[in-house]
Amino acid sequence: MSQLLWPLVRFLLLIEVAASVNFFHHRYEQLVQALFNVHNECPDITRIYTIGRSVQGRHLYVLEFSDNPGIHEPLEPEFKYVGNMHGNEVLGRELLLQLSEFLCEEYHRRNERLTRLIWDTRIHILPSMNPDGYEVAANQDPDAIGYLMGRNNANGIDLNRNFPDLNTFMYYNEKNGGPNHHIPLPANWKSQVEPETLAVIHWMSRYNFVLSANLHGGALVANYPYDKAQEQRSRGYQRKSNTPSPTPDDKLFRKLAKAYSYAHHSMHQSPTCGEQFADGITNGASWYSLSKGMQDFNYLYTNCFEITLELSCDKFPPQKDLEKEWLVNREALITYLEEVHQGIKGLVSDENNNGIAGAVISVNGIGHDVTSGDQGDYFRLLLPGTYTITASADGYRPQTATVTVGPAGPSLVSCQDVHKLERVQRGAMRMIKGLEKLPDSDRLKELDLFSFTKRRLKGDLITVSLSLFLYI
């Protein structure tokens, strides 16, 4: 290429890159076009699908990133971001569009960090859960947008007060005994939820999400469950005096919230937006109690851990601020996404290597279990430490092992049967009750695999291999 032409080509390339990232408020049609533009730019690693329609018929589009779009790969965790649940809280919507474009562009640039994230994670991005409410808010005079204008859906319902109330059942079970996870839905629940809520619940049921964040505005804080206090209190102005309502995973949720707040430019630097939040995080009920919220529902009905991110003091920030907001949130959005790779994961399978769905994975000392997915794989977010893990399934004898979780990311270990583990135990490697500690592998460590024999109810013995893949 002529040296005279090269500066012109570079200039045109810069224009093309700059034009692909547009910082403006996207109306519904523009949002849809932006999603399809990303898909067209990165068809090999993206998929667009809809989880349903709003009251007024607008699609709730999701953009998926994966090295195998549309396919759940065993032992690859599912992650979701949800934006614009309240129609007039719009920054999350725009940030998720920018994040989508950023992931696509950086993948093309062979950004090692983001390429690995896309290879190792199935990422689902729902930019707008409430497109009808957004259109109401966007039609207002920018200087006159009210605190509630466009917040609700087209039926006037606050979607973050519209999920089935499972907290009441959970609090009862804590005192009187009962399940600590996957709380059954109450009768006639479908008649009590809005189309957008129903679509999201079906979405949660279809995909075995591990981690999630729900993006809001009007404050600057990372809010974690529970949102509902055991003794219900009104919001009011004395909301900071409320007592926290911690989950059994309170320490983990605090860590997840801090992962975002400290990667954000200023969220951790309290006070913000006139309110004081140590480390830029808060327990939901400690801030103000709300019932039928989405983050509590995630935790109590599915395997997913979700927090609520309040991203700006202004619910509908001016267009000129969008680029700045993207820059102060970009690293935090990526850092939080990476938290899906913290804890243990594994596969429960039978003697024919068929996955066992619905196996319960319990952690001693933490009163919240998770279950394996349709293919037998499971994921359990945990802080670094040593844990006693028990796996159980209908028709099989429960088995227990001790595992150690380190602070970084996962590397996979293949299943081994009981005889192979016994042979390793007689060798030089350190074994604890069938638990194998494997050596380091580049920046990651492969840890801890155990297999065990369970008994069917009919009495014949089979071998079921349960592999615990630990993150360090």
TrEMBL record:
UniProt GO molecular function: metallocarboxypeptidase activity; zinc ion binding
State its cofactor.
Zn(2+)
What are the GO BP annotations of this UniProt entry? peptide metabolic process; protein processing
Q: Where in the cell is it found?
A: Secreted
From the UniProt entry, list the residue stretches annotated as the region Disordered: 231-250
Residue intervals of the Peptidase M14 domain: 24-340
* Matching Pfam families: CarboxypepD_reg (PF13620), Peptidase_M14 (PF00246)
Signal peptide (UniProt feature, chain positions): 1-19
GO CC terms in record: extracellular space
Q: Keywords in UniProt for this one?
A: Carboxypeptidase, Glycoprotein, Hydrolase, Metal-binding, Metalloprotease, Protease, Secreted, Signal, Zinc
Q: Superkingdom of this entry's organism?
A: Eukaryota
- Which residues catalyse the reaction? E310 (proton donor/acceptor)
Record family assignment? Belongs to the peptidase M14 family.
Q: What is this protein called?
A: Carboxypeptidase N subunit 1
- Lineage start: Eukaryota, Metazoa, Chordata, Craniata, Vertebrata
